[in-house]
Amino acid sequence: MMVCSLTLLRWSASYSTLVFGAMGLLALLSVAIIARNRAAYRTEAQGLSREQVDANVFGVGAITLGMTVLGGLGLYLVVVG
Q1: For residue 67, what are the CA distances in angstroms to 44, 46, 52?
Q2: From the CA atom positions of the chain, what is the Rg in Å?
Q3: What is d(CA 71, CA 25) in angstroms, rounded to the nearest whole number?
Q4: Which range has the worst mean pLDDT, 3-7, 40-44, 53-57?
Q5: CB 53 within 8 A of CB 8
Q6: Which residue has the higher pLDDT, 15 or 62?
Q7: 57-80 vs 16-49: helix axis angle to the nearest 10?
Q8: Which pTM was predicted?
Q9: pLDDT at 10 over 80
């Protein structure tokens, strides 16, 4: 995600607020994913050893929502720009 956020610099001259907001959102999502995966990894490893793993509905929903919003912003930049 960090690499994707840097590709948004192409539009920073025209849409500085929107681009830097999207870059900030990508950076925040990256940090959140890293932080949550550390704790979730241990839980999932224990679940796998017991052969009983619960679905991570919140994590999947958060990433899906974030990618949808960022995809919409990117589409807006391409179509309008």
Answers
A1: 24, 29, 29
A2: 16
A3: 12
A4: 3-7
A5: no
A6: 62
A7: 160
A8: 0.52
A9: no
